[in-house]
Amino acid sequence: MIRIDDIRFDSDYYEPLIHFLMNSTGLNLDYYRKKFIEKRIKSRMIRVNCGTLESYYNYLLENSSETNKFFDCFNINYSVFFRNWEVFRQFEKIFLSALYLKNGDIISDLTPNPERQYRVRTKKDSMNSQNRYKNPKKFRKHSINQILYQTSLYRKIWNPSESERHINIWSCPCANGEEPYSIAMILDNLKNQIPKFPQFRIIASDIDREAINRAKKGIYNEDSTKSVSKFYENKYFNKENENFGYTYSINKQIKNQVEFIEEDVTRGHQTSLTYDIIFCRYLLIYFSRRTRKEFSNILRNRLNPGGLLILGKTEALNNFQGDLKLIDSYNRIYIKEGDLNIN
Ligand SMILES: C[S@@+](CC[C@H](N)C(=O)[O-])C[C@H]1O[C@@H](n2cnc3c(N)ncnc32)[C@H](O)[C@@H]1O
After folding, report:
1. pLDDT tens, N- to C-terminus, the chain (343 residues)
2. Which residues contact 19 (CB under 8 A, 6 or more apart)?
3. Is 82 in contact with 34 (CB distance < 8 Å)?
4. Atom of ligand 1 at shortest distance to CA of 280?
5. Pocket of ligand 1 (CB under 6 A)
6. Does domain 85-336 have CATH number 3.40.50.300?
7. What is the pTM of this model?
8. Where are the domains of the chain?
């Protein structure tokens, strides 16, 4: 059995191997961090017992199914409903503020059910909250009201033109659907309580066909639903006791509110839409510094002026943010500055 430390990356075979993988899987490997790619290659090499790149390269040539296996192991589809749930609370708050409502005006509860939270607080968590206390500037949560009038969301709600009736939201990448369905549940709950709630459209895309198929099925296990509050669980899931534990099926009404697309976002986006809110969480971490800038331009071009970009908790645009301004450093929310011409 080969161990990770035994693997040698013979440089002669690195480029041909990458070239072969790019051609056969269609993955745009140029975008990803070298360390990330190497880790994925090594994990496959261990599986098929190859100690050198040369032997893995030959293995790939001789075993056509290995290409698909590499693709599957390359995509890390980990996601959960309401991942970093405070981000979703902020998202809900932004909608309510744009409608001049307060949290107390509607019935909603995003606080995860404590009975299902088995994760123990780590040292890192408590350090983060201490830093937040010591260094409030770094983790400043901007009052949403300060930027509200600059958002395209606000403009569309209060001054919609014919072509701009819908609030467009894009979840990219969406993995198995947990993120876009979390968004859909929040908006559906608001829509049911608020007269004349704006129309919205949720697009969700991912490179991984299997993940998109799982998303369309909408059946989840206990782990991926552990941050769902009792309120949302009762309202939008059918819980069933199977032999191996509970399953949670998302209800049809929520399923119908999300349009799923299979695509490699580094190669473009299939709709012609521009968005008011883009959730792009936990994808940038896989990209190299060089390509992050290019990628942030792809997102920026899809945002309306005043549109919001939400990154993962550990992600940042750093030096290449251009006209994207960080407005909530705790929840990693950026706004695209620009001319908000009202037509
Ligand atoms: C860790 S998940 C993040 C899911 C979700 N946004 C969240 O925060 O839970 C990363 C996803 O990125 C997808 N992915 C990786 N490269 C991609 C690409 N070039 N285009 C679209 N999706 C990609 C993977 O298939 C995987 O489902």
Report:
1. 788 888 888 889 999 999 999 999 999 999 999 999 999 999 999 999 999 999 999 999 999 999 999 999 998 999 999 999 999 999 999 999 999 888 788 999 999 988 876 554 555 555 555 554 455 455 455 567 778 999 999 999 998 776 667 999 999 999 999 999 999 999 999 999 999 899 999 999 999 999 999 999 999 999 999 999 999 999 999 999 988 889 999 999 999 999 999 999 999 999 999 999 999 999 999 999 889 988 999 999 999 999 999 999 999 987 767 899 999 999 999 999 986 654 3
2. none
3. no
4. 6
5. 75-79, 83, 173, 175, 179, 206-208, 211, 264-266, 281-283, 312
6. no
7. 0.90
8. 4-74, 85-336
